[in-house]
Design goal:
Structural class: alpha+beta
Radius of gyration: 16 Å
Oligomer: single chain
Distance between the termini: 12 Å
Strand order of the largest sheet: 1-7-5-6-4
Number of helices: 5
Order of helices and strands: EHHEEHHEHEEE
Largest sheet: 5 strands, antiparallel
Length: 178
């Protein structure tokens, strides 16, 4: 039996985004960058689970991070494109939906051997200009002996939601099923 992905959101996410739940998706609104990223899939590199396209475009050094979670958050993190969106008060919902859609589609392409991965989607007013809405998405895997990216979705100034990949079905030999 395959279970659904787990979802959660801080109260600010609902307040800022205006979404009633975390089920909103719109594949037609997914930008080309996100479509290409999902199509390229994931890669495991020294215990870190990275979106291949984002890893190939990343120019930082893994040595600057104290753990895999921080490295994954940096490599896998991107802003949510807002080009062509209406004024800020009307686009928060669309921005959140775009982030949720990308997160769900990317998690659906995780290889079976990957550990659980959580997508974090944030939406807020820009620090530099209250009239501008911005959003971000990043992904971090569960790592033994490392704390998660966050345990309190309400601890951020932004509204934050999380989607954790569905657990993989395990076969009788202890490995993932086909």
């Amino acid at each position: 039996m395959v279970r659904e992905a787990e979802t959660a959101a801080g109260s600010k996410f609902y307040e800022i985004s205006g979404l009633p739940d975390l089920e909103s998706t719109n594949d037609e609104d997914l930008p080309q960058l996100y479509r290409e990223t999902v199509a390229a899939g994931w890669v495991e590199a020294d215990g870190s689970w990275l979106l291949k396209k984002f890893r190939d475009e990343y120019h930082g050094s893994k040595s600057h991070f104290t753990d895999r979670t921080g490295y994954e958050a940096a490599v896998n993190g991107r802003s949510i494109p807002v080009a062509g969106f209406p004024p800020p008060d009307e686009n928060a919902q669309r921005l959140a939906t775009r982030g949720l859609t990308f997160a769900r589609r990317a998690l659906e392409t995780l290889p079976r051997e990957a550990p659980p991965v959580t997508a974090y989607i944030s939406v807020s007013r820009a620090v530099y200009d209250d009239s501008v809405m911005e959003g971000n998405v990043t992904f971090c895997a569960d790592h033994e002996n490392e704390p998660p990216y966050t345990t309190d979705l309400d601890s951020f100034q932004a509204g934050v939601a999380a989607i954790r990949s569905a657990p993989r079905a395990i076969g009788p030999d202890g490995g993932p099923t086909a």
